[in-house]
Amino acid sequence: MNFQLIGVNHKTAPVEVRERLALPESLLPEACKRLVAHPGIEEGMILSTCNRVELLAKTNNGSADLRGFIRDYFRVDPADFDQYFYEYRSREAVRHVFRVTSSLDSMVVGEPQIVGQVKEAYALARAVGAVQSQLDSLLSRAFAVAKRVRSETAVGSSSVSIASVAVELAKKIFGSLHGKHVLLVGAGKMSELAARHLLAHGAGTIFVSNRTYDRARILARRFNGEVVPFDKLYETCDRSDIVITSTGAPRAIFRREHAERFLARRRNRPMFFIDIAVPRDVDAEVNKVDGIFVYDIDDLQQAVATHVADRKKEAELAEAIINVEVQRFESRLQSLDVVPTIVSLQDHLETIRQAEVDRVRGRLGQLDPEQELAIEALTKGIIKKVMHTPITTLKVAARDPEATTVIDLIRRLFNLQETKSQSKSSAANSGPGAKS
């Protein structure tokens, strides 16, 4: 399994590091194309969320310079991120993909948003041809594993989420949310979910502002809210008590001077920013303004951590499922590795059988149908017995780390010719660190 993964997430890197590598959805297709054009990479996908940025690749020799891609694409020195990166290969890369998709590696264990985010990243990469056979198999299995984890454990049953924690924090600031105005800046799914929670707890009017006016209008309609044109954002923001922002902008859109202006217009009534954007939408200096409260995605993580202890046992059950599924996936890939050789062996021996039958048929004279059937049965029976041992050996070897050696030996013994695709597959599975 020549899979390789490198990334940073909310556990290994603070938000100021993650935002330097974050990619907006609009750039992901081109970034995936660049990834598979990088030396040693056959297939690739990039997952970029507020909590993680990960590069997943199928390599052609078990090892590719993903740090070199990060250096070239993001124009950063990977050495600056050494303490934050995690890297996985082969089986451990598969395990990580299964855990992420099943929400076992999430800030809120069991939250349902991550599987949708992985599906979107997969669809974007697949649309540009960056995901093909093996990554396609891996991601398809990951979605099935996530479904199994959710159906066979209660890991996702708790109501704790980023959105619910945001509501709790808002209550601490305002006491009651009744009639409080909420502004959504950006039309992201997580900000929409947070707004729904706030409304359910008594919040009043919802304002929506987005660079694309039509998207703002569609979202505002869902809440019976009002659209704020993006170019009027700073003029009207002070009307809102709670601002949920997630724009994907490359730099902060709310700075200290804005906050001071808002607070003056509000006559020092408090204002609460929930910044779930990476890169962050609210500059850290804003939090120093008295009366302005800012919580970014890492602050929300700390608040969530106190609520999720009850999920530990269910998470352990989910981890056991992951272990079984990783083994099954590895065995399936290994079984697929021997199929081309089995087919080639069958074709090779059948060609020999037919050639020999044709060669002797002329010496036997005219044969009746019964004799023809007898010769077919006899020669096919011999071929079947000859194939039995090598095919059985190949199937057993598929479960063994030395499968590549056995496949190569049988191909040499029977002088089997490799097709172009088989040769490529063989090369991909025989590199350093490969497990067949």
Number of domain units? 3
Any guess at the CATH architecture of the largest domain? Answer: 2-Layer Sandwich
Would you tell me the structural class of the helices and strands? alpha/beta
Largest beta sheet, briefly?
A: 6 strands, parallel
For this structure, the CATH topology of the largest domain is Beta Polymerase, domain 2
How many helical elements? 16
Mind explaining what this structure looks like?
40% of the residues are buried. By secondary structure, this protein is of the alpha/beta class. β5, α8 and β6 form a beta-alpha-beta unit. It has a 6-stranded parallel beta sheet with strand order 7-6-5-8-9-10. A 4-stranded antiparallel beta sheet has the order 2-3-1-4, with helices on both faces. It starts with a strand and ends in an 8-residue tail after the last helix. Helix content is 53%, strand content 12%. α2 crosses α5, α5 packs antiparallel against α6 and α13 runs antiparallel to α14. It folds into 3 domains: 150 residues, 2-Layer Sandwich (Beta Polymerase, domain 2); 144 residues, Rossmann fold; 92 residues.
Secondary-structure map with pairings?
Blueprint: E1 3-9, H1 15-21, H2 28-37, E2 41-48, E3 52-59, H3 66-74, E4 86-89, H4 90-101, H5 113-127, H6 133-152, H7 162-174, E5 182-185, H8 189-200, E6 206-209, H9 213-222, E7 226-227, H10 233-236, E8 242-245, H11 256-265, E9 271-275, E10 292-296, H12 297-305, H13 312-364, H14 369-397, H15 403-413, H16 420-428
Parallel strand pairs: 5-6, 5-8, 6-7, 8-9, 9-10
Antiparallel strand pairs: 1-3, 1-4, 2-3
Helix pairs in contact: 2-5, 4-6, 4-13, 5-6, 6-13, 7-8, 13-14, 13-15, 14-15
